[in-house]
Design a protein that fits this description.
alpha/beta; Rossmann fold; five-stranded parallel sheet; 30 helices; about 45% helix; globular
């Protein structure tokens, strides 16, 4: 179900009880957007422990270089640690020391908090980031240091991480724990008591829990009232929704059945996904009688509950390769893997114009899923087009048979840059986000979905040239004549892309590819001056934890600069040897590529030999994703594409 359908299948006036504290206002707004009546009942507060001796000892050890690994459990803990230690130490010196140690974050929030201080997380354990997942990541991630004899500091959340610290000690590390704050009940319990009364009086439809402590505190207050069992009984007639596995585990331990768990463990996603599956019947007196949700994410009170789809996908070879982890085989997907070489696609295109297809979430889902299943690839890529973002900015977009895209209202100077609109991607490109959500739900749980966008330079060149070009003379002339207008244009595109790509991530994309298809027309010095800062700004602003593949063609002369611009994986074309490219990029980045697409029209023996050559160049290093050096050509035999996928899987089997 995509987002437009979610609006129709909304909370329909039901009371939705929210136990969130710090972000209760934002969460309440999302509930209201989907037709619910939000009931805010804050259940936790953080009490800083600024006089903790362990805190100041960690600060001294950091500055003295006596810390090898830091594990941050929460985003709040990151900010509290840095801001508190900055009252005694120079913040820049402190941040410099943090940049020298291996940093592991539990989930995405602490990684995002670190980025606010321009401190990169070495490893971000994907949500739900259980203590077991953290230990497994430390043991098996190729990026982590061996822990034997290492000094590991755990910056705890509101409670002690005893099992985590014991498990890391068992790996031979010296572990210290730092408690920065503790969880406590709010000073004002009136809203929480009122919410419990609502539940007991059958005046609520949904209970939303966004962390495990909320479950403990709600049951603590109910027990203090002598109504714990009555509360549990009353909850059986409601829908209890959990943000993720850790919260679900705690709810189960408290004797509360979890009816719904978010696939994407974020608060806003919890509301959207729950609204999409809500089935309500209007009651009387403002009540809502809610039918149970038949959901694949329903969890019974047991710690061994099946993991959500997003968890299973994190173990998929494609996402493991993006993180440069060991894989069972080299993953493969193909640019333009849904295209004119497929008979089913040609049949559809004979009935539906290209732009109409791109704007139909249902048809996008059909094409995307069909291609991934037909080819047997390790990732699906959203069927869409790089240039869709240009229309809401005020340009016309047409596709002429055999001639490619034609952009009207092209950009020729500073005045044209000024008239380009700042866009609200959530409304103007909603059909793309709806398609991402629909595709994600239609794909198998363990198959990752790649979203994508054009890079700022490639989009700008289309705007200026009015379409494709062989020489990009107009683009280069624009850059050299009016550098100020050029940077203003790139800034506008950058702002639109950040919102557009983050919207795809929110809608369910597991990874992102940024296509800089035309950037190879530039010299390395022009790339550094006119492109790198803008591409870098896009990648740095993307939500952490989602791998980014940065792809360009003709970029052999400035692969190091592409690496500097950003991306977890650098995609290279077929005009450079893969081993030389990877050496230039650095082995601490993944690489994607790079079979010449034309080879797929040769014999199967040639395809096997050329694929083997590329696999040999990769030498089983963690981080290689097999792909073409550009998209599948229209006249490629479909059977040859299927054969290539099978060959790569067979020849790379570990």
């Amino acid at each position: 179900m995509h987002l437009s359908e979610a609006k129709q299948a909304s909370f329909a006036g039901a009371a939705v009880v929210l136990f969130e504290s710090r972000q209760s206002k934002a969460l309440a707004g999302r509930v209201a957007d989907f037709g619910g009546v939000p009931v805010c009942a804050p259940s936790v507060k953080e009490v800083p422990l600024q006089d903790s001796p362990a805190l100041w000892e960690l600060g001294a050890n950091l500055l003295a270089g006596r810390v090898d690994v830091i594990i941050f459990m929460t985003g709040f803990g990151v900010r509290l640690l840095i801001e508190t230690l900055s009252t005694r130490y120079e913040q820049e010196e402190l941040l410099g020391c943090l940049r020298l140690v291996t940093i592991l974050t539990r989930g995405l929030k602490p990684a995002q908090a670190l980025r606010e201080y321009e401190v990169p997380a070495t490893i971000a354990v994907p949500d739900p980031a259980t203590w077991e997942a953290i230990v497994e990541t430390l043991r098996f991630s190729e990026r982590s240091l061996p822990l034997e004899g290492k000094r590991v500091a755990i910056v705890e959340s509101g409670g002690a991480s005893v099992r985590l610290s014991d498990a890391i000690r068992a790996l031979g590390a010296h572990v210290s724990t730092v408690a920065l704050y503790r969880w406590a009940l709010p000073d004002d319990l009136a809203p929480l008591n009122a919410a419990i009364d609502r539940v007991l009086n059958r005046q609520a439809g949904y209970l939303l829990f966004t962390n495990a402590t909320q479950a403990r505190h709600v049951m603590q207050v109910a027990a203090d009232r002598g109504q714990a069992e009555a509360f549990r009984q009353a909850c059986r007639g409601l829908i209890i929704a959990s943000v993720g596995l850790l919260t679900s585990r705690e709810l189960a331990q408290q004797g509360l059945r979890v009816d719904f768990e978010a696939v994407h463990p974020r608060m806003s996603s919890l509301v959207v996904e729950l609204a999409a599956q809500a089935r309500t019947q209007s009651g009387t007196g403002g009540e809502a009688r809610v039918k149970p949700i038949a959901s694949s994410t329903t969890i019974e009170p047991a710690a061994s509950a099946a993991p959500a789809g997003s968890e299973r996908r994190q173990s998929a070879p494609f996402l493991r390769a993006c993180r440069r982890e060991s894989v069972s085989h080299t993953p493969i997907w193909l640019m333009r893997q849904a295209g004119r070489f497929m008979q089913a696609y040609r049949d559809l295109r004979s009935r539906v114009p290209f732009v109409d297809l791109c704007k139909s979430p249902e048809l996008v889902t059909e094409v995307t899923v069909m291609a991934a299943q037909r080819l047997g690839v390790d990732a699906a890529i959203l069927f869409s087009d790089l240039l869709l973002v240009l229309e809401p900015m005020g340009l016309g977009l047409e596709y002429s048979q055999g001639e490619g895209p034609i952009i009207t209202g092209r950009v020729a100077g500073a005045a044209d840059v000024d008239r380009l609109r700042e866009i609200d991607v959530r409304s103007s490109l909603k059909y793309v986000f709806d398609a991402v959500t629909m595709v994600r739900q239609a794909l198998p749980d363990n198959l990752p979905l790649i979203g994508f966008a054009g890079a700022p330079f490639t989009l700008a060149s289309y705007m200026i040239e009015g379409g494709s070009s062989r020489t990009f003379t107009d683009t280069k002339r624009f850059i050299w004549r009016d550098a100020g207008a050029w940077h203003a244009l790139m800034d506008k595109i950058t702002r639109a892309l950040i919102a557009y790509i983050n919207g795809q991530i929110d809608a369910g994309a597991d990874a992102i590819q940024i296509f800089d298809s035309w950037v190879g027309c530039l010299s390395p010095s022009d790339y550094r001056e006119f492109v790198l800062p803008h591409t870098q700004a896009v990648i740095r602003a993307l939500k952490p934890g989602t791998p980014v593949i940065h792809f360009g063609t003709g970029t052999a002369a400035f692969l190091k600069e592409m690496r500097e611009a950003g991306g977890d994986v650098i995609g290279v074309d077929f005009r450079v040897e893969l081993d030389a490219a990877w050496q230039a990029i650095g082995y601490d980045k993944g690489i994607q590529g790079n079979l010449d697409p034309a080879i797929l029209s040769a014999g199967l023996d040639v395809i096997r030999r050329k694929a083997r050559y590329i696999l040999d160049q990769a030498a089983n290093r963690p981080g290689h994703i097999f792909n073409l050096g550009h998209g599948v050509l229209p006249d490629t035999p479909e059977a040859h594409v299927v054969a290539l996928v099978d060959m790569v899987h067979e020849m790379s089997r570990r």
